[in-house]
């Protein structure tokens, strides 16, 4: 099981990501997306699901119409680890087309 990141390590890792922040209430990193419509949101979720399954690491998320809210933590470790930073990096690499 990977170690949780220290506050400093987590802050530094977040600087390398696009729009992710620490959600203290969830003890997770998170990002909220808004898409053109439900189809675009669900297409994004499908792509994330395939990545998650491949990497054995899965998002805690919710979807309301065109909005997708993602929180990433490593349950076994009880906090944020490199696994979460890695999944967030792969999600960013999808270059999701969010609406304004
Ligand atoms: C047994 C299996 O490896 C674990 O349950 C995995 C599955 N996906 C997971 N996803 C996330 N986000 N955190 C975990 O700790 C986790 N654990």
What would you say the CATH architecture is? 2-Layer Sandwich
- Ligands, deduplicated: ligand H2B
Q: Could you say which overall geometry the principal axes of the C-alpha atoms support? A: globular
Number of discrete helical segments: 3
**Count of domains:** 1
Read across the widest sheet, the strand sequence of neighbours is 1-2-4-3
Low-pLDDT residue intervals, each spanning 5 or more residues: none
The secondary-structure element order is HEEHEEH
Cα-atom radius of gyration: 13 Å
Quickly give the structural class. alpha+beta
Helix content: 25-40%
Fourth CATH level, the homologous superfamily = Transcriptional coactivator/pterin dehydratase
Average pLDDT metric: 96
Strand count, sense and barrel status of the largest sheet are: 4 strands, antiparallel
Separation, N- and C-terminal Cα atoms = 38 Å
What kind of oligomer do you see? single chain
CATH class: Alpha Beta
* Content of β-strand: 15-25%
Account of the 3D structure:
Belongs to the pterin-4-alpha-carbinolamine dehydratase family. The protein has three helices and four strands. It has helices at 7-15, 38-55, 82-93; strands at residues 21-23, 28-34, 60-64, 67-72. Helices cover 39% and strands 21% of the residues. The mean pLDDT is 96. The longest helix has 18 residues, at 38-55. It is α+β, with helices and mostly antiparallel strands. The chain has one domain (7-93): Gyrase A, domain 2. The structure holds ligand H2B. The ligand C[C@H](O)[C@H](O)[C@H]1CNC2=NC(N)=NC(=O)C2=N1 binds next to loops.
